């Protein structure tokens, strides 16, 4: 073994997919994982140099991946929260011009600097719990300039904090008032102006849509996918959240990295995901906040071998929740995932939902050394308790961060 920069010994290893049966060692060099082996295979005297960290049996996981957030937004929707508690539904509020459109008004009114400052606490809360990669969507601007403004803020967050930010253009999130009764005209704007502008400025890694009765039709979403692919951008979908329109299957056939929410997904949709290799992203925070009763088809996803990612969906309306660790607990309690399935959802499968599975999300040689050391020796503890156990160390590209 060459001399690693850092060597963790006596690690309880959750590598993103499974827990190792015996104490492990993990060596990191130049920001990459160089070697992963049982302690029993370390040669006497290894390593000759570098820092050695005795984990004393603590759990080491990949850095956590939050693959679906709306962290950049203006205003608050606490009033809408109260209205929903009094009996109004999310759809009713949306159809009356509230919901997403109320955040659109506040986001349009905010400067780039204001949006940046408002987003920082949420981002830092995620990072403090071990998130090393986060996806951030636009979708509260709904004009070319306001969508680009949101994406610039997201890019700046990634430059100014030790976290990798993946940006997603969500122009097709809601129909803005200027296009009332002209949804196809708005989709023209998304396809012909927003996507080209975001691509030209390198501001978007992916393009997303809200395929729903209060969002856009399958046909409209398909037009967005075609435009995104023409610019070499990855695609994703908010699909089957409130009803079954077949948006997940359409997204999968268009080559989507993931479809997200999917409470109303049926078996034909699950098969379409399996055939396309599309990830199913579960968002229990939105399920909880909207007091949904229909659970995503977990057993069908398992049976057809569809990878399940798990994310906060942090946003001001349906999931004002900035804790990916809480999602581990919710995914188990509300959706009946096993703790290890939930952990894979925020590591290996979360990375796959962003198309980054060859770079992050696993502890394996050649991948980036984004790692979390936890104050527990049992990986299931991470999903079991809320508030504990705490993060012991967060590493980004091999450096404490
Ligand atoms: N479902 C649509 N979009 C967001 C909610 C956005 C909002 O209500 O502000 C979601 O992922 O839940
Ligand atoms: Zn969302």
Automatic annotation (TrEMBL):
Reactions this protein catalyses: 4-imidazolone-5-propanoate + H2O = N-formimidoyl-L-glutamate
GO molecular function annotation: imidazolonepropionase activity; iron ion binding; zinc ion binding
Binding annotation for N-formimidoyl-L-glutamate: 140, 315, 317
Chain residues that bind Zn(2+): 68, 70, 238, 313
Residues covered by the Amidohydrolase-related domain: 59-382
Cofactor needs: Zn(2+); Fe(3+)
Pfam families named in the record: Amidohydro_1
Gene Ontology process terms (BP): L-histidine catabolic process to glutamate and formamide; L-histidine catabolic process to glutamate and formate
Keyword Metal-binding listed: yes
GO cellular component, one term: cytoplasm
Pathway(s) the chain acts in: Amino-acid degradation; L-histidine degradation into L-glutamate; N-formimidoyl-L-glutamate from L-histidine: step 3/3
Keywords: Cytoplasm, Histidine metabolism, Hydrolase, Iron, Metal-binding, Zinc
Subcellular localization(s) per the UniProt record: Cytoplasm
Residues binding Fe(3+), per UniProt: 68, 70, 238, 313
EC id: 3.5.2.7
The record's free-text note on cofactor binding: Binds 1 zinc or iron ion per subunit.
SUPFAM superfamilies noted in UniProt: Composite domain of metallo-dependent hydrolases, Metallo-dependent hydrolases
Classification via PANTHER family: IMIDAZOLONEPROPIONASE, IMIDAZOLONEPROPIONASE-RELATED
Function: Catalyzes the hydrolytic cleavage of the carbon-nitrogen bond in imidazolone-5-propanoate to yield N-formimidoyl-L-glutamate. It is the third step in the universal histidine degradation pathway.
HAMAP family: HutI (MF_00372)
Family: Belongs to the metallo-dependent hydrolases superfamily. HutI family.
Name this polypeptide is given: Imidazolonepropionase
Organism field: Oceanimonas doudoroffii
Organism placement in taxonomy: Bacteria, Pseudomonadati, Pseudomonadota, Gammaproteobacteria, Aeromonadales
Gene: hutI
């Amino acid at each position: 073994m060459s001399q690693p920069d850092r060597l963790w010994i006596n690690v309880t290893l959750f590598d993103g997919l499974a827990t190792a049966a015996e104490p492990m060692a993990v060596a990191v060099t130049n920001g990459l994982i160089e070697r992963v082996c049982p302690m029993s295979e370390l040669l006497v005297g290894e390593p000759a140099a570098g820092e050695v960290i005795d984990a004393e049996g603590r759990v080491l996981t990949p850095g956590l991946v939050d693959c679906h957030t709306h962290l950049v937004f203006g205003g608050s929707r606490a009033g809408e929260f109260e209205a929903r508690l009094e009996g109004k539904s999310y759809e009713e509020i949306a159809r009356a011009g509230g919901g997403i459109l109320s955040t659109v008004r506040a986001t349009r009114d905010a400067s780039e600097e204001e949006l940046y400052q408002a987003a920082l606490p949420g981002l830092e809360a995620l990072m403090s719990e071990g998130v090393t990669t986060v996806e951030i969507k636009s979708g509260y601007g709904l004009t070319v300039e306001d969508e680009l403004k949101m994406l610039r803020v997201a890019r700046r967050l990634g430059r100014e904090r030790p976290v990798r930010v993946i940006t997603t253009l969500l122009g097709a999130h809601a129909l803005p008032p200027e296009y009332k009764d002209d949804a196809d005209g708005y989709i023209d704007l998304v396809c012909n102006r927003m996507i080209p502008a975001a691509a030209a400025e390198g501001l978007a890694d992916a393009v997303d849509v809200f395929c729903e009765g209060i969002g856009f039709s399958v046909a409209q979403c398909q037009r967005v996918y075609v435009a995104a692919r023409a610019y070499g951008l990855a695609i994703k979908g908010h699909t089957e959240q409130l009803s079954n329109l077949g948006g997940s299957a359409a997204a999968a056939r268009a080559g989507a990295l993931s479809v997200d929410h999917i409470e109303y997904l049926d078996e034909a949709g699950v098969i379409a995901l399996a055939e396309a290799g599309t990830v199913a992203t579960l968002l229990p925070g939105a399920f909880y906040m909207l007091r949904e009763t229909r659970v995503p088809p977990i057993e069908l996803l398992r049976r057809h071998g569809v990878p399940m990612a798990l994310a906060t969906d942090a946003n001001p309306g349906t999931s004002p929740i900035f804790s990916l660790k809480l999602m581990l607990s919710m995914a188990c309690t509300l959706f009946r995932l096993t703790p290890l399935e939930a952990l894979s959802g925020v590591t290996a499968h979360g990375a796959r939902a962003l198309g980054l599975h060859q770079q992050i999300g696993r502890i394996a040689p050649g991948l980036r050394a984004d790692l979390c050391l936890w104050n527990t020796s049992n990986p299931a503890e991470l999903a079991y308790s809320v508030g504990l156990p705490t993060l012991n160390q967060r590493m980004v590209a091999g450096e404490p961060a």
